[in-house]
Fold this sequence. Notes:
This protein is an all-beta fold. The chain is built from no helices and 30 strands.
Amino acid sequence: MTGYRLRVMMLPLIAVALTALAVGAQASTAASNKPYSIVICGDGQTGCSATNPAVVAPGGTTVDPSSLSVTFTNDNKLGSGIQLGSDNLNVPSTPAGFSVISTSLPTCPPSFTNATPPCFILLNNGATVGFRNLNLAPAQSISISISAVTPQPSTTACTTTSPCFWTDQANQSNNFSGTGNGLNSDANSSYGTVMSAVAFCAQKKACSTTLANGGTATSAPGSIDATVSTSSGKTAVTQVESIDFGTPLDPAACSGVSSPHLTAETLSNGSDNGTDRSQTITINTTDFVGYVSEVCLETNVPFTQLVIAPDGTESLAPATQTGPSTFQGLLPDCATSPPQPLQVNCSKNPGVLQRQTTVSALGTTHTIVFAIPPGFDPRFSN
């Protein structure tokens, strides 16, 4: 059986001292002259706003960049004749590590006229992306995909409690020229970017984090929210959760199953890294074509995997070793009472606790809950 599956993986925490960003000069205002809005959103995410910021993958590289989108809307009154012609969008200035490498628009030619389709140029080594020839009349919008290099996960910056912020300047002219023709970002704008959810897990205390790029997307790559609940433990640890961090898992190691999203979670304290703590992970995914309710796990500890043969036959086997200290495979179900075939003891082996599909007026949502016993270091996908 092939299809999209859930993957889970815990990675060693990379603690980086980073500074939270301040909102730029183009932050939203309740009322403005020549208004427009700009909305930054994550891959597969919808409904981004000042209170629901973009969720973007950390650790994006030039080979495997992070994906996000920017939507410009001209909010001037119909008949005003005020267009949104161009914009200079600046990546967050801190922490270091942000840059834009490409967009879904073509690169602007060396010389262009108003007849040239919308295009972009990279300025300041990718710290600024210039959008030109947008030609947006009042009430018109354009959504543009962006590929970017992004910093590693942090415990202090670009978190759910301390988002990073982009800034921009918009202009009526198509080539960002002239004076006195600037536009003003309004209250519909959303500049925030989140790359991780962080929790401090005190000694002998449980903790949890939730990270959602949720919305109402109904096609791949879908919208997800993931909650990682960690049990109490002997030592205090810091938990960091992110979405789409790290390279995709190998479908060949998970019975041919792939997934559009990857959830990564780490525990760290510089000593035992919470090896005596167990975890329960709950992931909700909006429905999309090809969704399969399975978990593909990557961890640094061998485990028993579920193997699904091409003819649909299922069996248990040792997880596939994909690196010197990494193992991948689908998770079997946790044992019930009495235990059934193809089930595992989830106090010792990772496994699925629950699968559920909910249909409502807002659409179909799939929920999968699985258990990670102490001593594992996982990444997971669904």
